[in-house]
Amino acid sequence: MKTYREYRGKGDVIMCVTGHPGINKGCNYVGLNVVQIPTDEKKRMSVAHLKKAISSKTVVVVCSAPQYPNGVVDDVPELAKVCKSYGVPLHVDSAIGGYVLPFIEKLGKYKFKPWDFRVDGVTSINADIHKYGYAPKGASMLIYRNSTIRRNQYFSFATWPGGIYISPTAMGSRNGGCLSGGWGSLLHLGVEGFTSITAKVLEEVEKLVKFIKEDAELDLEAEPDSTIVSFHTKSFSCYLLADALEKRGLFVEKQSNPESIHMTIMPNHIGKVDNIIKAIKECIAEVKKNPSQYDLGSKAMYGMMAKIPDEAIT
Question: Model-level pTM greater than 0.90?
Answer without folding.
Answer: yes
